[in-house]
Amino acid sequence: MNPPLLQFNDKGIYCQQADVYLDPWRPVKNAIITHGHSDHSRWGHQNYITHYTNVPIIKHRLGDINVTGKDWNETFTINGVKFSFHPAGHIIGSAQIRVEYKGEIWVFTGDYKTEDDGISVPYEVVKCHSFITECTFGLPAFKWEPQADVMTDINNWWAENRAEGKTSVLFGYSLGKAQRLLKNLDPNIGRIYTHGAIENMTEVVRPLIDLPATIRVTPETKKEDLLGSIVIAPPSAHGSTWIRRMTPFVTGSASGWMAFRGARRRRAVDRGFVLSDHCDWTGLLESIQATGAEKVICTHGYSDIFSKYLRELGYDARTAHTQYEGETNDSEEN
């Protein structure tokens, strides 16, 4: 009996026929990468293949690597296996990987979301027989509000803080979330400042998307300059000596976890905004149904609960262990 086209082992998701891994978490010879977050694009592989818009991102993060960029829907063949990248809508440059061999089609999503965020190429349904899906927010409790509504709340919060003479400090991951926030902030309210980690990544992606002007916070930045402004910072900056120069400030966090009751208190922020770069429960179910897949493999997140529900719907569903983190409480990457 032939092995599955894609298998999970201790290094990652392996295609034996092509001798290539998808988003491997241990060093391998050949790696096909879905996107630039550090749990999916790791250092140490000999050869990287990714979507061309992801090339500058992973080079910025991983340094001098041997990487090849491909376009959307561009087919490349390795030992008879056809591969292609398709938009995942997760962050800038994020892709699903379609794998075809002898008429059998698999799709590995990496991370994905179905709402058009205005900075990522929108998610594309790819028909397949087997679908590997994340389940970061695979519970019915997770149901996202439209991005426009969330950003209206964020801009109103900033305007209120400005009227009170306070600096607004909003936490978001340095790649993806931060640029999504920047794209949708209202610069008419005031100046937009960024933490160095945010600004460094934003400089990398500016040639790819149109973003408002930002000002890097430096040791020379004065507290008086920041009053009434908004500062976008990674979660790791919360509670650090860096943030003390913002006084008086109000903190906010943009994350899917803000949908959980008590999340704002646990993160010790003044305001929580539910904004995720992953699918909610409905988005996951609708995406799976649209692929036409009969076999579904559920990875990181609420995978056991989600796969059980899929089996109740009639899918051939199971879980698989990976070292992907999804949107975690302490990572700056998702």
From TrEMBL:
Origin superkingdom:
Bacteria
PANTHER family from the xrefs?
Answer: BLL1145 PROTEIN (PTHR11203:SF49), CLEAVAGE AND POLYADENYLATION SPECIFICITY FACTOR FAMILY MEMBER (PTHR11203)
The family database entries (InterPro entries) matched by this protein are listed as: MBL, RibonucZ/Hydroxyglut_hydro, Xnuc_lig_assoc
What name does the UniProt record give this protein? Ligase-associated DNA damage response exonuclease
Enzyme Commission number, as recorded: 3.1.-.-
What keywords tag this UniProt record?
Exonuclease, Hydrolase, Ligase, Nuclease
Q: Name one GO molecular function term.
A: RNA endonuclease activity
